[in-house]
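Q: what does this look like with zinc ion bound?
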Amino acid sequence: MINTSKSKDLNCSDGSRDVIYQVSLLQGLINGDYYGSVSVGELKQHGDTGIGTFNGLNGELIMLDGEVYRAAGDGSVEVVSDDETISFSVVTFLDADETKKLNEIPDFDTLHNKLNHMVQQRGMNRFYMIRIEGTFREINVRSVYAQEEPYKRLTEVLECDQTFFMYENIEGTMVGVYCPPYMAALNAVGWHLHFISGDKTKGGHVLGVNIADAVLTWDDIDGFEVRLPQNKLFAGFDFTVDQSEDIKKIETNQ
Ligand SMILES: [Zn+2]
């Protein structure tokens, strides 16, 4: 009996790795809540791979192999200390349920089609976390400069404080999450990808890509946990207002 319950516990703790841990709602960020609510140190207890942004919208967050990096508005990348806080993030512990070679992916649409084909095979109503590591012929990323209070809405910030970078023939890794359609009120549905170069000097939110040769690591996720901010700004938002147009704008810059 003791052995049985022990193995159950082990199964249980294994299962807890397959949970998406989300800080705040993307819709909170869109409304202008850039206040950090969870520390980098705490975030690391819930995952080793993921995306997000920091207190004050200070750059794009990339979590890779358990380290948290900032791709800042000026294009530079740095390791972020455990006491800095996160205003929005989606992370998990990446376990490979499938790995696959990706060769000659000429553009973002082709990549999306391939990834969405895999989603259709595995089921569109769960979460997926992926990393794509290899050589990129071209990658287009954006970042954003840190904001001062009072915070503007995200679409306004992106109009004036967004920066774009294009890199050619670069080694690196994209990390990204797929959110199922029923997440439309809490996040962006579909894929959201961030990039960091192999030498950890360049990165950002991915807007375009041309992959020469890479390996895709794919993780099926069957759980979702969200941590809501405690601040008054977030508490006062009206989340019944549809923000799908703004989400499209901030994710794809179109
Ligand atoms: Zn992003």
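DSSP finds seven helices and 13 strands in the chain. The radius of gyration is 18 Å.
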